[in-house]
Design goal:
Length: about 325
């Protein structure tokens, strides 16, 4: 690994051979790259300006895009990575479990989000969630109440939120939480770089029967997905199962969003980034053992709010194991 700053710290912390990164003009000589070498680059995230500089410095090298190959390799986790994800799940469990103690009528979404974030940070959350998709950023989580949770945004997620700025229009905002409405709390726990994703619904008082029934339907859909989340299936198979279950239960116009504004997936891999493979959407990503996958069937009701669930699962040879362990019913406070 080549490091510009800090070489001393990298030498102390990296298990890899650490070398100083000098000028890109001498990169070929520094790495002893042969003429006409074939070099793989993650072109889905590499800025064109840096690609151009590397291209000039290596001259006759042939570049190939290895993005897809690396994303599929990263989708299957080692025991070490699974242990870190399990600890991340413990952190996000603790963060969400702190909500009932602090949730009060009239408090702002952002103030409750600060409590959840502080709880997780004290337990080792790095304070950052990485998103691979171009031009995407995330706060530590989405915490929105009532109709705010159903407010659409640019982010690749079933939920959006108003946020605190038109320049970052997602997540918790300044809306005051009311009684008898859903409070969606969707956060990513992170430990030593690895992510676990979880959503729970809270309420001061009692939700309308329509939303309670929709939440129960989401739980049924997640349970069906968990049973099917095993080797031999694909992301498309799981997505189609979810869509069929939503239609059978009568929620095709709410699952994943209203018609014309659906998010287009019901789950995603998690790891160093929150949007890893496999995608549980209309793609043929194979499901294999040792994947960490967030499953999130959510019912979006514009003007009312969002109910539903999200849990992070570990795929095994015997089926899926849930890593996020909080009770799944609506938390009435």
């Amino acid at each position: 690994v080549m490091i510009r700053k800090s070489l001393e710290r990298a030498g102390q912390e990296s298990p890899l051979d650490v070398r100083p990164l000098g000028s890109l003009k001498t990169l070929k000589e520094d790495l002893d790259i042969p003429s006409s070498a074939t070099i793989g680059l993650e072109q889905d995230v590499l800025p064109y300006s840096i690609y151009s500089r590397i291209n000039r410095s290596l001259g006759d090298a042939r570049f190939v895009d290895v993005s897809e190959r690396i994303k599929h390799l990263r989708s299957v986790k080692s025991d070490f990575e699974i242990d870190l994800t399990t600890e991340a799940a413990r952190i996000v469990d603790a963060g969400l479990a702190s909500v009932p103690e602090h949730l009060e009528e009239g408090m702002r979404e952002i103030d409750l989000a600060i409590v959840v974030e502080g709880t997780m940070r004290a337990l080792g959350h790095q304070g950052l969630i990485r998103f691979r998709r171009f031009n995407h950023e995330l706060p530590l989580g989405h915490l929105m109440s009532g109709p705010n949770a159903a407010t659409p945004s640019f982010v690749a997620s079933p939920t959006g939120g108003r946020g605190v700025s038109v320049l970052h229009p997602q997540g918790p905002g300044y809306r005051k939480i009311k009684r008898d409405e859903p409070v969606l709390v969707d956060f990513g726990g992170v430990y030593n770089g690895y992510t676990a994703d979880e959503t729970r619904i809270f309420c001061l008082g009692k939700l309308p029967r329509e939303l309670e029934d929709a939440h129960q339907a989401a739980l049924e859909i997640e349970e069906a997905i968990a049973r099917a989340l095993r080797s031999g299936a694909t992301g498309k198979d799981i997505f189609n199962l979810s869509e069929s279950a939503g239609e059978k239960l009568g929620y095709q116009d709410y699952l994943g969003g209203p018609p014309g504004a659906k998010c287009g997936f019901v789950g995603h891999g998690v790891g160093l980034e929150i949007d890893e493979y496999p995608v549980l959407g209309p793609v043929d990503h194979p499901i294999e053992p040792c994947m960490t996958v967030a499953v999130e069937p959510k019912m979006i009701y514009p003007g009312l709010g969002v109910v539903g669930i999200e849990d992070t699962f570990l795929t095994t040879s015997d089926g899926a194991k849930r890593l996020t362990m909080l009770p799944q019913e609506i938390w009435q406070v």
